[in-house]
Every structure is written in structure tokens, then in C-alpha cells.
């Protein structure tokens, strides 16, 4: 761990925190200074993140060929419970870190319209940014949970104070749903912690998991020395290390030994974690907080909510649920995939039924995030004797790309809705029309972003959806057909909205005289989103090159687990069942 890596990685979390503290000393009446300072802080988070994406620095750049965790920061925090300040980046988290940094900077630019309690807004905004970056960087489950909770209160107040007419209702609903998911996650966290046993891992597995301990002189022990100390019980045997929990879930049976209501601890942990994460995605039937939160939230917070926060649910599933609890994920594949497909279909039909422009975009998020759940759940190796890890790899990569693509298009769509709302102060689809003639530049950019959300080939929304549909084919042709059909529904509500808002004969709502062309500030926010939507649609390899090594390694690990653990177990169960049937038949 060199000083440059330590400084840059930790700055992604602590720069916003320090910025929030400094803002407390700013005069509240100097709103322009507060806004510019907050924008500067978001730039100081975005620039090093983008610098790591460039191949200019061998020391600092993200190494795309490495499958494991890099840029590791590991410091003892609460040694008696083996809780560490453990940060790291890999091909799963790095694209989401870039997305968070970019969307947060653009959303701060969109916050210029916020005029009430500006200093408080900016302080909470920076704390929210710190929590989001912390979630994607954390490799200690306890630390992950803390950052997950850190996001809750800032978002609650950002909706509840700066939202629309029903802001209190929306904020409380968001808080309660998210808190429910957090409680379930905490229960699963404790179940895994108290059933973990680092003594079951070899020295090599401890090394892969970056499990660390320090002697009394502050020197880090080698994996072999730590293994010996563990066997002698000189260090805690339970762990919150996410990478170590993955090794335990895939190479030992420590999470299968305890049985609760006929199911293993691993099974229950998967279910609890999955519920907690799909609340954040969100998936049907735990999605109802999202439309209310989006409708009432101010435009920049809707951008953050759709562009980043929803992705944390998918990130938790791929980072924690499947690698730690593969047996349960294998058995519950139909449940996970069914939830994904139901969310896709329900969200699309609900979007078709909306009269509120922003609520329509919110339901479209429910539908498009269903692709993420379906892609992560499409473990096609579970279909009879068919074993096709390539399809699951395609599903995971498609789901991750869908999170990035949807983060760009959804943030753009919510921003474009906000631009119009700031002028005419309503979102009634039936009262719009003819905006193309009054705002041609704005309309062109809005239509591009809406087409990206539709999944038009050549734009960022297409690649992820296509990969997910292809990946699920060998699992179930019926699910694949339904998933493909949802694209038609998406085209229906997107094209209908475009026709009603931008291409109608004339504007029929109030404040028609306020319909002015997009401002330079608004243009500078929309332009990067439009460029990213096109670039990622035409050159998806730009993003895949960061994901490939890590996802391929995770698929290889789970493929090995399936071949060495699950299939022999299934064969043994079938043979035992056949023996029982033969014994019954012989007695008859």
C-alpha cells in the first residue's frame, strides 16, 4: 500500500466529508459561493476516479488485466472483532465508482435551481456522496453496512425538505422501506459472521481474500503465520471480510452446518440479503417507494436516486449474495429470475398508464432494473444437466452494463423532465405538446436520452438488455421471450411520451411564455450524458474491458464450485432417492 494509492482511494470518501465540514463555516447567505464550492468538491472526487480509468500511471491506473482486488487499503479498526477499514477496487466496483462520480458532479450542476437552505442542502449532498463511494469501495461487510446506512439519512432529508407537495410522505416511505432492507441485511450479516470460521481456509485462500492481521509490533503477518495463529486461536476466527466470506461460502460448508426451519444458514442469509438489495433495486412488490420518491424529490436528487442508488441493489447481489451463498443462489434461480421478469413487465405497463411525466420515467426504472435482476439470476447451469457458464457470464456482464447504461439514460431523462418542470411547473403529459418548435436543441437532446432509455441499438441501453435476453435463453425460452417483448412495451411508452410532449401540434398547458431554449448551464449538464449514451452504445468495449477479468474470475470460481460441490451433491441425492425407491419397490 503506497502513499499515493492511500491518498487517492481514501480521498474518494473523505474529500466530500471534509467538504461538508468546511461548508458549515460558510455564510448561509452567500449561496453562489456555497454552490461553486460544492461543485468543486464533486470535481475533486470525479477527476481522480477518471484518472484511474486512464492508462497513464502504472502506479495509480486501474489494471484491467487483473482479476482480483487492487488499490487495497487495509487498516485495523476494531481488532477484537476483526473489523477493518478495508477498501479496494475491482472490475465490478470500478465502473460503478466512475458512474457515481460523474452523475454526482452533473447532479450538483443541476442543483443551481435549489434556493432554499442551500448550505444545508449542499452539506447533506456531500455526505450522501461520501456514503455512495464508501459502499462501492468497502470490502469489509461491517464497513459496507455502515456506509449503506450513512446514505439513508441524507437522502431522507433531501427528499423530505426540498421535495414536492407530498415530500414528507415520500421521504418517510423511502426511509421505512430502506430501513426494512437494512434490518434484514443486518440479520444476515450477523448470521454469516457468527457462522464463519477462518480456520477452515488454507493459507492460499486467506491470501486470496486479503485476510490480514498484525503482530504487537504493528507488522503484518504472512498468510502462513496468520493461519498458524488462527489454529492456535490467538486471533478471532469470525470475520466480516467479504472476500473471506466468499471463500468460506465456496470452499467450505460452514454456512451449511447450522439448520433453521429445514434450511441452511446460507439459504436464509441469501433470502434476507436478496430482499434487502431488491428493495433498493427496486423490484416488484417492494418497489412502491420509488415512484413517490422520484415524483417528490427535486431534479438533482432524482438523478442521483435513479443514476446511482438503484445500482447499489444490483451491486450487493453480485458482490455478496451469489459469491457468499452460491448454494442458495443455485436453488433459488427461478425465484430470482421470476422477480426480474415480473418487475420488467409490471414496470412497463405501469409506465404506459401514467399521466405524470416524472412518474412515467420512475416506473420505467422499475422495468429496466428488472433486466439487472434477471441477468444476475440467470444461472443457466441449473437447467437439468445443461451446464453453460458462458451464458451466466453474459448475464452478469449484461446486468452490470445495464446498470451503467441505465444510470446514464435515467439520470438524463429525469434531468430533461426537470428542465421543463422548472419552466412550466407541471408534469401533466396531456398538457404538453409542440416543444420541438419552441425548444429545438433541448428536444433533440431529450429525444436522444429517451431513445437510450428505450434500448435503441447504437445507444447505451441496448447492449445490457440484449446480453441479458441472450443469457436467459438456455435457462428458459419463455422468460427470454417475455424479456424481449418488454422492449416493445418500452418503445410504446417512450414513443408515446415523445409524441405527446415534443411532437404534438401545440402546447396546451400553463406558462407557455416561459418555454425558452435550454440554457448554457443546462446544456453543459445534458451534453456529457448524451455523449456517454452514444459512446457506450457504439463502443461498449470501453466499459467491458474494466469488467471482463473480474467477472470472468468470479464465473470461473462459481463454475468450479458447481462442478466440484453442487453436482456431486445432486448426484448423491438422486442416487439416495433411487435407492429408497428400489427398497420400497422390493418390499411391495
UniProtKB/TrEMBL annotation:
One GO MF term attached to the UniProt entry: ubiquinone binding
Keywords carried by this UniProt record: Membrane, Transmembrane, Transmembrane helix
Bilayer-spanning residue ranges: 6-26, 33-54, 85-109, 121-139, 174-194, 265-289, 301-320, 332-353, 360-379, 399-421, 441-464, 476-498, 523-544
Name of a matching Pfam family: Proton_antipo_M
Subcellular location: Endomembrane system; Membrane
Keyword Ligase on entry: no
GO BP annotation list: ATP synthesis coupled electron transport; electron transport coupled proton transport
Name of the molecule in the record: NADH-quinone oxidoreductase subunit M
Originating species: Bremerella cremea
Lineage: Bacteria, Pseudomonadati, Planctomycetota, Planctomycetia, Pirellulales
